[in-house]
Every structure is written in structure tokens, then in C-alpha cells.
Amino acid sequence: QVQLVESGGGLVQAGGSLRLSCAASEITFSINAMGWYRQTPGSQRELVASVNIGGRTHYADSVKGRFAISRDNDKNTMDTVYLQMNNLKPEDTAVYYCKADQFNDRDNRYLEVWGHGTLVTVSA
């Protein structure tokens, strides 16, 4: 099972931009999708954006037109994803988590692998 390491969080003023990165600990053919989720205290973790091995992306309505998820150019593997966040709003403040769907040979199914999260704070 890979480990995921997020980076790029921080403090930014409203209207600013940040770019988050998520890197898997190894290059593997067993990951078929990666995504970004976020969570605020007292709330459930919610999907922000995802991308699959075929390049198909999905965004939460609240970030469409402002955020963009991308991956490394190697189309045969997924080990690094990015989240470009533009026109940030105070309501985007959250801990952002990276997730990968990795095939587990023992269980013969895809399992979720989570990073530890990176804090994004947007000031008004």
C-alpha cells in the first residue's frame, strides 16, 4: 500500500491562489483514481475534485471554475496529482486530504488510501 504525502497548504487572502500537491511513495500501476477532499471541524469530509486513470475529472459544484485537478503526464500510472486553487474564498478554509484508490491483491478489490492532510486557510 502506498503512502500519500500532501504539500502546498498555507495561509492566503481571499482572491488568492494556492497549488496543492500529492505524491505517492512509489510509482505503481495499481492506482486507478486520485482525488482531493476537504474537511472542516464538525463537518463530514467532502469531495473537492477527482481524476481517474483515463483523465476523467469530477468537481464539486462549489469549486467549479475556480479549482483544477491535474496529474502527471504518464498516462499509464497515477502517482502524483495537483490541485490548483484560484479565487479562493474564506469558505474554502479546511484541511485538504488526498485520496488514492489502490487495488489490493489480497482483498482483490480497490481500497482507499488517505494522506494526512494539509491545512488551507483563506482570510477575508
Task: Walk me through what this model shows.
The chain is mostly beta strands and 124 residues long. The chain is built from no helices and eleven strands. Strands 2, 4, 5, 6, 9, 10 and 11 form a seven-stranded mixed sheet that branches. The protein has a four-stranded antiparallel sheet with strand order 1-3-8-7, with no helix packed on it. A hairpin with a 4-residue loop joins strand 9 and strand 10. The termini are far apart. The mean pLDDT is 94.
The helix fraction, in percent, is under 10%
Which outline best applies? globular
- Gyration radius, in Å: 14 Å
- Average pLDDT taken over every residue: 94
| Tally of individual helices | 0
Structural class by SSE content? mainly beta
- What's the SSE pattern? EEEEEEEEEEE
Major sheet details: 7 strands, mixed
**Contiguous uncertain segments of 5+ residues:** none
Q: How much strand?
A: over 45%
Number of distinct beta strands: 11
State the end-to-end distance.
Answer: 39 Å
List the helices and strands and how they pair.
Layout lengths: L3 E4 L2 E4 L4 E7 L6 E9 L6 E7 L4 E3 L7 E5 L8 E6 L8 E11 L4 E6 L3 E6 L1
Parallel strand pairs: 2-11
Antiparallel strand pairs: 1-3, 3-8, 4-5, 4-9, 5-6, 7-8, 9-10, 9-11
